[in-house]
Amino acid sequence: MFGVIDLPTYLAGLILIVLLPGPNSLYVLSVAARRGVRAGYTAAAGVWCGDTVLMTLSAAGVASLLQANAVLFGIVKYAGAGYLTWLAIGMLRAARQLWLNRRAPAAEDAAPAKAADERPFRRAFVVSLFNPKAILFFVAFFVQFVDPDYAYPALSFVVLGTLAQVASCLYLSALIFGGTRLAAAFRRRRRLSATATSAAGALFLGFAVKLSLASA
Question: In angstroms, rounded to a whole number, what is the distance separating the alpha carbons of residues 196 and 190?
Answer without folding.
Answer: 10
